[in-house]
Amino acid sequence: MARNVEFDEERAIQKAMEVFWKKGYNGASMRDLTEAMQINSSSLYNTIGDKHQLFVRCITNYVHGRIKEASAHSSKIKSPLKAIIGMINDCVNTILYSDNHCLAIKTTFELAGTDPDVMALLKQDSNFTHGFLLNLIQKAIDQKEINSETDAETITNFIISIFTGWHESYIIHKDPIRIKKMAKYLISQISG
């Protein structure tokens, strides 16, 4: 008779996500994953599936967590401009002070072009982020916190591209002053 698999699946998914965050999809071995999850490989295969299925679950949790967090935060926003500045500063803090940079950006560079399941999840994350930021920018324009001649769509695309560029810049140069100066300049351009 088969033994029942008992483990905290959500906690295990979080532990696996940390491995993928650190090593990437291709760099993470099944041994790395099962050790971090504190389960054996048969438990993993019986409950979640193979490495790819586990990765898709991790990315799904990551994307849904970001959406849930942003949605909860949006109800508290009084000043759209302050919220945009907060997003910019959060991006800087994540890049400079977090061991885990944006998993979506990291995964985009590693897998998005070759894995349709991952691409669909990353596109969902990107579309949500774009819509969320576009809405904030439009509200800031409507409330006259940002110049009314600003094109909300263009500035949204610009900011999102900048976030990706900052991640790349910091990985290559490890220069926090460069990132902080670029953030200060971006904020001055938006609010000036």
TrEMBL record:
Residues 6-66 form the HTH tetR-type domain. Keywords: DNA-binding, Transcription, Transcription regulation. Pfam families: TetR_C_13, TetR_N. InterPro entries: Homeodomain-like_sf, HTH_TetR, Tet_transcr_reg_TetR-rel_C_sf, TetR_C. Residues 29-48 bind DNA. GO terms for molecular function: DNA binding. This is Transcriptional regulator, TetR family.
